[in-house]
């Protein structure tokens, strides 16, 4: 594991391009398991989570060819069916949250799949009930394998069959998993209360290109006409909207002017407006976002003058993955805001580190924090801290970049799992971040 050593207080300037989206890549790479033919995917981010998922696929027997940066061919024509039911497989899955996404394709294509308790961030309970219920709706049976400490899903004789289902919540990976399982089921599956964020839409587009008939893409009512067989296809991953938001926040926190290039603006939903509510006068320029340097970032109030409330919600609401960054940005704006993290219960505890740095924040309960902005008058102080999860990690990195003095952030694998070469890319804008191997 390594530590970031950050010399704060440097102005940033220039252009930065977001990497391909982590969360889309995890779905798309898993979908390659649905066909024995070649799937060509470009703009895959070279990050820890993706490398680990690709490693898992290779262990399963998938042929992977890296043709250049972010450019991969996957061919799942010779899957080792003994391996995908082995203890080693289940153990590997348990250490990688994205591995939940291989369950749907494996169940659909090979009739059996294990659900290890997935690893990843400690940001709250990460239930997989929606995934499992969805697959049971398609006819799978469930039992618990004591030796492997994992749930086993088994397809009925003759394969999964389509049905109507209403999801208990619009789970993103749950929806993706059920779509992939339904892709090879007999008959038609209708999923109501489906998650519809751009990365689920992208999964549907890839599956359409592979020959699947899907109606309702981008809505919460999906109709999937199961196919006998899917074929190879080409796919390009969208820019990572969480990186785009992180860079907007970074510019404001450092009172700097930057341009975020090629953001796929139309797929950002409510994200740009949410940053505007913190007083950031960002502009759309073609498919770029220009963030001007400002003396003051004035947080809006509600129409009746009451304190602004920024809360997450399933798409098209605001993604929970940006609230940590927005919270840190607010510490240097003028005015106050209530950050309400509704979807996860343990994602706000990192505010203690910001309070150590001099930020004015009241943690009301595990879900809500009130931030009183310092209006760039009292700069944050340097601190030594650990990255508790991927998004708190990037938020603390941005805080350290704006702080007076030299900070250290340990456990940066939590940042590396989602942000590609982040130290060098931010240093190219003028940051001073050094990676110290421990
Ligand atoms: C690999 C991947 O793609 N991970 C993303 C995915 O995780 P993931 O798919 O695991 O997250 P889910 O959408 O299942 O749920 C996230 C949290 O929100 C809650 N919930 C969900 C839906 C709902 O209608 N109401 C509700 O309260 C769930 O109980 C859970 O606590 O989606 C999350 C929500 O956007 C993101 O934070 C993760 O980065
Ligand atoms: C929580 C996240 O990812 P994961 O679901 O992979 O833990 C995230 O990307 O913010």
Summarize the structure in words:
The protein is an alpha+beta fold and 438 residues long. The protein folds into two domains: 2-19 and 239-437, UDP-n-acetylglucosamine1-carboxyvinyl-transferase, Chain, CATH 3.65.10; 22-236, Enolpyruvate transferase domain (UDP-n-acetylglucosamine1-carboxyvinyl-transferase, Chain, Alpha-beta prism), CATH 3.65.10. It has 14 helices and 23 strands. Strands 21-22-1-23 form a four-stranded mixed beta sheet. The longest helix has 13 residues, at 48-60. The chain is globular. It binds uridine-diphosphate-N-acetylglucosamine and phosphoenolpyruvate (PEP). The site of uridine-diphosphate-N-acetylglucosamine has 18 residues, from α1 and α6. The site of phosphoenolpyruvate has 11 residues, from α1 and α12. Belongs to the EPSP synthase family. MurA subfamily. Its main location: cytoplasm.
Low-confidence stretches: none
Main structural class = alpha+beta
The CATH superfamily of the largest domain bears the name: Enolpyruvate transferase domain
CATH topology descriptor of the largest domain: UDP-n-acetylglucosamine1-carboxyvinyl-transferase, Chain
Number of separate domains: 2
CATH architecture designation of the largest domain: Alpha-beta prism
Q: If strands are numbered along the chain, what order do they take across the biggest sheet?
A: 21-22-1-23
Q: What is the total tally of β strands? A: 23
> Can you tell me the overall shape?
globular
The Cα radius of gyration reads 22 Å
Bound small molecules, deduplicated: uridine-diphosphate-N-acetylglucosamine, phosphoenolpyruvate
Measured by DSSP, the beta-strand proportion falls in: 15-25%
Could you tell me how far the N terminus lies from the C terminus, measured between alpha carbons in angstroms? 6 Å
Reported for the largest beta sheet, the result is:
4 strands, mixed
Helix tally equals 14
Percent of residues in helical segments? 25-40%
CATH class of the largest domain: Alpha Beta
The pLDDT mean sits at: 95
Binding site for phosphoenolpyruvate: 22-23
Active site: 121 (proton donor)
Pathway: Cell wall biogenesis; peptidoglycan biosynthesis
Binding site for UDP-N-acetyl-alpha-D-glucosamine: 97, 321, 343
């Amino acid at each position: 594991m390594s530590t970031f050593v950050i010399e704060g207080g440097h102005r940033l300037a220039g252009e930065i391009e977001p990497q391909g989206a982590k969360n889309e890549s995890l779905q798309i790479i898993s979908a390659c398991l649905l066909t024995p033919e070649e799937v060509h995917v470009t703009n895959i981010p070279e990050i820890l989570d993706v490398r680990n998922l690709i490693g898992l696929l290779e262990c399963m027997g998938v042929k992977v060819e890296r043709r250049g940066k972010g450019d991969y061919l996957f061919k799942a024509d010779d899957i080792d069916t003994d391996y995908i039911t082995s203890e080693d497989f289940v153990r590997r899955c348990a250490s990688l949250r994205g591995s939940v996404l291989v369950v749907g394709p494996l169940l659909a294509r090979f009739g059996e799949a294990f659900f290890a308790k997935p690893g990843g961030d400690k940001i709250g309970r990460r239930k997989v009930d929606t995934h499992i219920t969805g697959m049971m709706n398609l006819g799978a049976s469930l039992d618990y394998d004591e030796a492997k400490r994992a749930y086993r899903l088994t397809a009925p004789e003759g394969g999964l069959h389509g049905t109507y289902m209403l999801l208990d919540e619009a789970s993103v990976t749950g929806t993706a998993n059920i779509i992939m399982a339904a892709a090879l089921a007999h008959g038609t599956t209708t999923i109501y209360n489906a998650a519809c964020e751009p990365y689920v839409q992208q999964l549907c587009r890839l599956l359409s290109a592979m020959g699947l008939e899907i109606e309702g893409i981008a809505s919460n009512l999906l109709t999937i006409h199961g196919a006998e067989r899917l074929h190879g296809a080409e796919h390009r991953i969208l820019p990572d909207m969480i990186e785009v938001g992180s860079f907007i926040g970074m510019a404001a926190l450092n009172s700097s002017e930057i341009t975020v290039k090629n953001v796929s603006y139309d797929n950002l939903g409510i994200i740009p407006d949410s940053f505007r509510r913190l007083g950031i006068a960002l502009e759309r320029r073609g498919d770029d976002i220009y963030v001007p340097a400002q003396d003051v970032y004035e947080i809006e109030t509600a129409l009746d003058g009451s304190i602004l409330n920024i809360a997450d919600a399933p798409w098209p609401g605001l993604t929970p993955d940006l609230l940590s960054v927005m919270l840190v940005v607010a510490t240097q704006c003028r005015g106050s805001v209530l950050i309400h993290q509704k979807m996860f219960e343990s994602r706000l505890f990192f505010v203690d580190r910001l309070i150590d740095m001099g930020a004015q924040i009241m943690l009301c309960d595990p879900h809500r924090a009130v931030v009183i902005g310092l209006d760039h008058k009292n700069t944050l102080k340097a601190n030594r801290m650990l990255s508790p999860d991927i998004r708190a990690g990037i938020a603390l990195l941005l805080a350290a970049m704006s702080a007076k003095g030299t900070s250290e952030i340990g456990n940066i694998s939590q940042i590396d799992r989602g942000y590609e070469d982040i130290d060098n890319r931010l240093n190219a804008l003028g940051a001073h971040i050094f990676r110290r191997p421990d």
